[in-house]
Design goal:
Four copies of one chain form a homotetramer.
Chain A lengths: L17 H10 L11 H14 L4 E5 L2 H12 L4 E6 L3 H4 L4 H6 L2 E5 L8 H4 L13 E8 L10 H13 L3 E6 L2 H8 L3 H4 L7 E5 L9 E5 L8 H7 L8 H11 L3 H21 L5 E2 L7 E5 L2 H8 L5 E4 L4 E5 L6 H16 L1
Parallel strand pairs in A: 2-3, 2-4, 4-5, 5-6
Antiparallel strand pairs in A: 1-7, 6-7, 8-9, 9-11, 10-11
Helix pairs in contact in A: 1-11, 2-11, 8-12, 12-14, 13-14
């Protein structure tokens, strides 16, 4: 078997967008001060402020887990708790990084579509002030979620208002914030600062970057000590200009929206194809670049011989199919065809 | 003032070597499985084993602090202590990352040229077995050191033998291992596995890479759980192929030695120029790509108007001048000339 | 309102058993080496080995949270996970101590009567070996549980066999192990070493001691570094003789069983009284010294004016009534009478 | 050899003062709410405020290491550093508890008599604001020090003023604060709140208590979250009344000063005896209950056959001789005689 050029396993499997690659080359000129004190960083931070609002404090870090854990470590103390979805990356996919680096307890909640609602969080506040219990301090949500669903601006506002009323903060894991904004047709600022988000992990690698993530604080007071937290959590890149240049390429001319919208379109195309297959059942609304579907077990194996993707839940025979900025209409048609063939047996 | 293209502040300020840049472009084809299960990683690991020995277990991480702290966390428990030089990066320049992520105490020792000797470490073992005291478990040295000095293979062997005799391990922070190997004219294997090193942080960014570091274990048993430690310490890159491709470029045809030797030569050239200036005093032997020198205080300020570099010690008026893989003979001559002019006042 | 001498809030509210108090006085003679190197400790450890088996490695610590967290920290690394009941003390009542001191993730499971079964744990092992996920290493159960239920020896054996087969360990939070052993009519050894338990927190404070807890390892290899872990977790008492003397008093002549059996009897008496009241519903089997019952909300407030106890669940109007080694038959009758009166309104 | 009733090894080897023992018995009546919500605690806290000032926020914990580490964890974040004496308990004798529980770096300084001076701390502030370096946040001193020396009120004031001017805090490890206050003839308030101390670990075990320590904050804002930190660091005693009762016994009628002054007197008596022996050299001023002396090596061994004490420094043949609240004049005379005999050898 030759592995296909483009699979549906993960948007992390895609390469680097040509315009990002170009920007990396363009930044590779002469010397630039390391650790963020360079012109590329100044420019990228400026672009962030144009997109996310003037109060945004922006810090570049290496990766998504690092962004989440450093962001959460910055706004908590170890006796705090972070409320999150049971299915969230911070809870499931970071090998306990929050517990180790922030020392905090996570309080995971089950929720439809991997989304949290204020009324779910409320009961967790019953023990506030009681010294025996970790004190909820942050509500952390992923936008888009790990199940491909998207919070509306109103839903985020509802969570932020609830959090602030209760003396808590709202953190957004925005590894796929671009896909969410593209889906909703709103600006990055409307979806973050405008919705009351306090701190954001903004990802680039799933949307055409090589590496690099940004932690963005919308209240400068929260950012005060962040440069130390970033360094101590081993998330300070030395040659920062190369992360800055990538983000600049993504933000300039809103390339981020173009690439994210493309990936979302392919997911909708795929969903449409699958809905037409009687033996396949979609399990989540398709609101970003992910399609979740239940397929007959033996068909999965056959399709996997031709396309790389992950089984999400062995027991329910549910698969996750991720589209990327570089997924083509043809790729989607071929996958759908392969599924149909596999089902015909 | 226009900042000069190439300064002497840090080898981290240099850009990416053209052949590394090329390799990044070449790796940017189609999809590749994320998190290390890709052909680029397989190939790079193979090259590591050719250079460092067949038993080497190789793990790619984001950066140097992450490499050090994850390596040390993997081979210690929080009640252990790590013996290191007072001037070492792990002690001084990582904002307490070891303490936070490994939970360990560092036991810093002062030593000539930033180097440790077994007889310095010995007294720290007096309290072994006593429950009140952190138990020394690792000797951590930098090769080359933060002061630009280089351990001979014999010196490393002496430290490794001492460590092993006492039930301890030897860790090498090899952010500039290439410079040390180039200086000594030995292979990477002779300088690590051959010298008894147990675990190595092998750096690329200071020698022409964009980002990326490798943690190399020379005893596979020590590496057993490392993939979890790496992830939990937020050091697992998603698009690993791009770190792998860079390292492959560096190792193939021994580009690493060429670039490191070049930087070392420029440092020797600079040292020769400075030795000829009576008001300047070199403070460390020049064995890698760093030159440490004491200059009259007011001259420093004047030179800094034209070249970017750091004052190492304000009180002694000592500066650190770092050469990079891209420093030219002309750059060095111009710096020396600027110093002479500044001294003439 | 005058607070009654003896309430039903917690077995921690009771004082010190007269024979324990006597032992404290008797140990207060002259000097004794601090930190465990004294004759009282030697003697108490001997008594532990008589009760728990000759392989038991015994370490005295200050308190119950400290015992649990130090025990778990000793047998885990931060990338491990500890599987526990959702209602367990380690999960709910220690303000995140395990997360902070061991750095581990807890994986809480809901279960009838606060008890875990192997088949519940099994699905958590699906992601073993996958670097993105915390690796389950310990099953931690409370015996008796926080809901007053007791694992049979067979149930514990089942958990231990499952754990060992899967390369995991079984930890028992035995803050109320005495109550469980008294309920089952088995020896401490049968209930721990004999059932395959690997490490135990054995509590004294809830059974007549002033303070002090023991961490007991049943495999000496697990205990190897524990004295360092204990000290680093701030759990090493200086005047250890006074904890040793208390435990000796408790173990000698099996006072522990007498006191625990007494408390259990009072709980059964209380349960019998409450079962006779139609408006009261017991919610858990009464197997140790706790009685859980649902009462009409307004009755609770009235009873609390006369007896001190805690509402366990505000929403279901469920209360927890704890009996102690010093609860009298009269106390129980008075409480039952107060409840009946409150219900008559 | 029969070990003598009272040795000179440690004030932790002494037992419990009769009046403290009495207080424990008196507190052992009926039930009292656990975890600090009891009348004994209210009364003890009142006595603390009488002695330490009305703004004192007082929290009882299990032991000295726990007091230090919880106090420091409460007022730092992991990227902070704690400046302390090289010889300090927090640095040397707590097996790395601060590093593990607070995540902080310690910055140990050598100083005459184990004491710190502001001008020593100053150079450590050079790198403030630089993200690569742990940020000094607390100066932690022991009073009396581990070498038996005592800071004058003026010296403490100097440290506090320096710390506050630099945005730092002053922590005092007061395991032997009573001895220091007795030596100086000042009140506890003058020596703490009055001198500008921000947070204090106040010890009882070395001065006649069985166990128990208090963390005292002199600025209520610093204490805000301390009850959570205490619990999460496993330092919250369940039957708090028994620590409260002991402290009340110590503070009432100023028993603490009587016992400490007694121990100090015995140390001065011992020093006088030793000064009269030509082969013995005192190495530290005798300002509390410790005497440090250099003795011929073979004499040490002979004296140790009759009296239990520790060699402080094997290489310099220096011993530490600790007096306790129960050391008698006769004990001291016998020790001095034993030394003289051993020297006549």
């Amino acid at each position: 078997m030759t592995r296909p050029k483009r699979g549906f396993a993960s948007d992390n499997n895609a390469g680097v967008h040509p315009r990002v690659m170009e920007a990396l080359g363009a930044a590779n000129v002469g010397h630039a001060v390391a650790y963020g004190d360079d012109a590329y960083t100044v420019r990228a931070v400026g672009l962030f402020r144009e997109r996310f609002g003037e109060r945004a404090e922006v810090f570049f870090v290496f990766g998504g887990t690092g962004a989440n854990v450093a962001a959460l470590a910055a706004v908590t103390r170890p006796h705090h708790a972070v409320v999150c979805a049971e299915t969230s990356h911070v809870n499931v996919d970071e090998c306990g990084a929050v517990e180790r680096l922030a020392g905090c307890k996570l309080l995971p909640l089950a929720g439809a579509g991997g989304k949290l609602r204020p009324e779910q969080v409320e009961p967790l506040l019953a023990r506030r002030g009681d010294q025996h219990h970790s004190q909820p301090r942050v509500v952390s949500v992923a936008q888009a979620t790990e199940l491909g669903t998207v919070y509306t601006v109103e839903e985020l506002k509802g969570l932020a208002e609830f959090a602030h009323r209760e003396g808590m903060l709202l953190h957004v894991d925005g590894a796929r914030l671009a896909n969410a904004a593209a889906h909703l047709g709103v600006s990055l600022e409307e979806l973050t600062a405008g919705a009351g988000v306090d701190v954001l992990s903004f990802g680039g690698a799933k949307n055409g970057m090589m590496y690099g993530e940004a932690v963005v604080f919308f209240d400068p007071a929260l950012a005060e000590d962040f440069r130390f937290v970033r360094k101590q959590c081993a998330q300070l890149p030395s040659k920062t200009r190369f992360i800055a240049a990538q983000f600049a390429a993504l933000l300039e001319g809103d390339l981020w929206r173009e690439t994210a919208a493309h990936a979302n379109s392919r997911a909708r195309q795929l969903a449409a194809e699958l809905r037409a297959i009687p033996q396949v059942r979609l399990t989540q609304p398709v609101e970003s670049n992910a399609v979740f579907a239940v397929l007959p077990r033996d068909a999965i194996a056959r399709v996997q011989e031709r396309f790389f993707f992950y089984v999400w839940n062995e027991q329910t025979s549910e698969v996750r199919l991720m589209c990327s900025y570089d997924t083509t209409e043809e790729d989607v048609r071929e996958l759908a065809a392969a599924i149909r063939e596999a089902l015909e047996g």
